[in-house]
């Protein structure tokens, strides 16, 4: 349920509604807007009896939310959400690029990549220190040593960091090293991990599970938001289908229906979505056209020698060409490339 306050409702009136919701053993989520405040209510297993709330001073309306996801729904939050990091923003009006290698491999390649990205106007760098690998014998990431390198890149160059959290044990260390915490496809339904990042105060990039429906994906976002972290960015990274011409099937058709039911921003990762370097840029362009809020692109100083995902990583020249090509259509589409 959503309680809509009258325009000009006082802080005391809002506080009184929050207390009344808590007295019903439910959780209030105040959402200040430009003209009025709304208060989302979660925690109910059945319908909420709104009678104790509707009579309170300053309350304009009670709206029932019909979707199973509440805080992630547009019914509860009609305006698009914009996520801010110290370096940039993700959401309407922007088209936000995140580039970088699949894994942190050493300090030199991270510094070189960060400098390259900044030269392209890209303010956020992705790179995994903890890597979810299909084989236990494959490179598993540099762990804490990798996080230390990412922290150094942020401190010396000012680039924002996006890096994956794989388990709850590393939550504090990953939150400290990152500006956006990535939850990978394999962990989209790891509910302990989702609850843990619900307690974090950094934005969370939630990749779509490789066989998740739109509703399952938004329910995973709801876990994070129900914990009090409303800064969720969704990321389509391809789903598993019968196709064998590409690593995954990049489901750009999910973007319009997602935008219809949710206010959360969505990025697209055509690197994991296609798995093959020549297909990355065409699908990146298509993502912008389909209404995505930005891209997550793997790029590496020497992709053929990358320790993970080299086949789908762009080299710097290919990345720079993609940025130039995106600029030609971002402007006419009313998006500022950042
Ligand atoms: C990654 O971003 O390198 C990664 C492992 O992504 P995904 O979880 O989408 O496979
Ligand atoms: Mn990767």
Give a short overview.
This protein is of the alpha/beta class. Helices cover 33% and strands 19% of the residues.
Verbal overview:
There is one protein chain. The protein is an alpha/beta fold and 338 residues long. The protein has two domains: 2-63, Alpha-Beta Plaits; 83-333, TIM Barrel (Alpha-Beta Barrel), CATH 3.20.20.70. It has helices at residues 11-23, 51-54, 107-119, 144-157, 171-177, 191-198, 214-226, 255-261, 270-274, 277-290, 316-330, and strands at 2-5, 27-32, 37-42, 59-63, 83-84, 89-90, 94-100, 124-126, 160-164, 180-183, 204-207, 232-236, 266-268, 294-298, 336-337. The chain has an eight-stranded parallel beta barrel, surrounded by six helices. Helix 6 packs across helix 7 (214-226). The longest helix has 15 residues, at 316-330. The site of phosphoenolpyruvate has 8 residues, from loops.
Q: How is the secondary structure organized here?
A:
Layout: E1 2-5, H1 11-23, E2 27-32, E3 37-42, H2 51-54, E4 59-63, E5 83-84, E6 89-90, E7 94-100, H3 107-119, E8 124-126, H4 144-157, E9 160-164, H5 171-177, E10 180-183, H6 191-198, E11 204-207, H7 214-226, E12 232-236, H8 255-261, E13 266-268, H9 270-274, H10 277-290, E14 294-298, H11 316-330, E15 336-337
Parallel strand pairs: 7-8, 7-14, 7-15, 8-9, 9-10, 10-11, 11-12, 12-13, 13-14
Antiparallel strand pairs: 1-3, 1-4, 2-3, 5-6
Helix pairs in contact: 3-4, 4-5, 6-7, 10-11
Bound molecules: phosphoenolpyruvate (PEP) and manganese (II) ion.
